[in-house]
C-alpha cells in the first residue's frame, strides 16, 4: 500500500516546527529518521493531515558534554551513538545497546528522539534511557519543560508529550561505572523477545549500591525491577542474591503474547536474563 495524501512541510527551526504543529491541531506528524513512521504511513495505520520534516534542525543533532552531564539532541542518529568517542566514554551502555537496533542502514537514519517518541515496549533506547535515569526536554507553545524518563510513557506507543510539543533533547547524569546488557531475539537484530539492562556501583566493602535493573519487551513500556533493586542494595551479588532478584523481578512484568513468544515464555526467561546481566556486572568489578 501507499500512504494517504498529506501536506509536506520542511521546518528550518524549532519555532517554525512548533507553528506548523499548532496549525494542524494535533493532526500532523514529525518526520526525523522515518524508520517507524514511513511503514505506518504506507500501511495507512496513520493518516496525518501533514508531515513536518525536522531534519534541517541541525541544533537538534548535537552531542555535548555539559560538565558532568551529557546532552543528546533528539536528531542524534543511532549511527552516531554507535561510533562517537564521546558516547563510548560517557554513555557506554547506550553505545552497546544501539548495536542491537536493526541493521546499519536503519542506524544511519534512525534517531534517538524518534525511538523514544515511538515508544515501542521492546525498543532498546527507551530501556537504556530508563536505566540511566535520563530526562527529556520537551518544547511547546507554553515553553520548555523537563520530563523524567520514568514519567515519559503512558503505555505502549504512548508518551506524555502533548500533541503540540516537540522532544528536543535528552539529558544524562554521570554514567555508573559498571553496566551490562542482554537481549534475546529470534534472529539477529530482530525485535527483542525481551531485554535486560543493568548498572551499578561496586564499593570497596564488597557491596553493590545504586543498582538499576531495567526490562524491555515484558510490559507495555520498559520497566525497572524495583523490588530486585531494593533486594540487592549492599549485596555482593552472590548466586543466591541473583536468584532471589530474578524471582523478585516477576512482580514488575505483565508480558504480552505475540508471534515472538508467549507471555509464559517471557516470564520464564526474565529471571534467567537478569541472572546473565548481574553475573556480567559482578565479573566487570572483578576485572
What structural keywords apply?
14 strands; alpha+beta; 287 residues; Enolase-like, domain 1; 4-stranded antiparallel β-sheet; Uridine Diphospho-n-acetylenolpyruvylglucosamine Reductase, domain 3; 11 helices; single chain; 5-stranded antiparallel β-sheet; Uridine Diphospho-n-acetylenolpyruvylglucosamine Reductase, domain 2; 3 domains
Characterize this entry briefly:
It is built from 11 helices and 14 strands.
End-to-end distance: 53 Å
As for the number of domains, it is 3
- How would you describe the oligomerization state of the chains in this entry? single chain
Low-pLDDT stretches: none
Structural class designation: alpha+beta
Number of helices: 11
The share of residues in helices is: 25-40%
| SSE arrangement, N to C | EHEHEEEHHHHHHEEEEEEEEEHHH
Description of the molecule:
- The chain has 287 residues and is an alpha+beta fold.
- Helix content is 33%, strand content 26%.
- The chain has 3 domains: 47 residues, Uridine Diphospho-n-acetylenolpyruvylglucosamine Reductase, domain 2 (2-Layer Sandwich), CATH 3.30.43; 113 residues, Uridine Diphospho-n-acetylenolpyruvylglucosamine Reductase, domain 3 (2-Layer Sandwich); 109 residues, Enolase-like, domain 1, CATH 3.30.390.
- The chain has 11 helices and 14 strands.
- Strands 4-5-10-6-7 form a 5-stranded antiparallel sheet. A 4-stranded antiparallel sheet has the order 11-12-13-14, with helices on both faces.
- Helix 9 runs antiparallel to helix 10 and helix 10 packs antiparallel against helix 11.
- It is globular, with a radius of gyration of 19 Å.
